[in-house]
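ENTRY TYPE: protein
CONTENTS: sequence, structure tokens:
***
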Amino acid sequence: MKKKLGYTFIIITAVVGMLLLFNQSIANHMIITMTTNSLKQNIHKNKQKAVYNFDNVKNVDTTSVFKAVINKDNENTPIGKISIPSVNIKLPIYLGLANNNLLSGVGTMIKGQKMGLNNYTLAGHHMKDNNLLFGPLSKVNVNHSIYITNGIHIYRYKIKLKKIINEYQTKWINENSKKPVITLITCATGNPGETNRIMIRGNLDKIYDYKK
């Protein structure tokens, strides 16, 4: 009897594990699809209300991904795009930190910030799959280039600092730099409850005409 119960437990555990793995694979595929579709959208100024409360940003799980796919009404239109070619990042930029938007791209962290001026701050999720969303930030190095665009200009920044900070070190976000810089923030790992952050700081290097 005990052997039968033991075998049953092993089988149930294996089935549950396979289902969880299968669900995660589906969720990852959905994130890639949402990101790809969002990158195809035209860039324009977004007049919708934006959420900037960090407490509203939740950990990513399969349920939240499925809800984001179904609930398109709360999804904003991208206000720009970001690319870091050295680590294969190419994502839409959204206004604010709404959960649905952060499942397909990155969001602005401060109300009223403008590309190419002062401190332009962006936040994104770090998934267990380091190739998704802002996970590849763990692989960037100093002097790598960051490109962002608003559909009018392309702004190239050179990374000058990569640092692990804790979740309470908000000075990097709130700093109103006189020189144009960019600040990228993501969790240090894709583990739920991670309290440390990867902080990337880059200096504006060049501005291009988007049409050219």
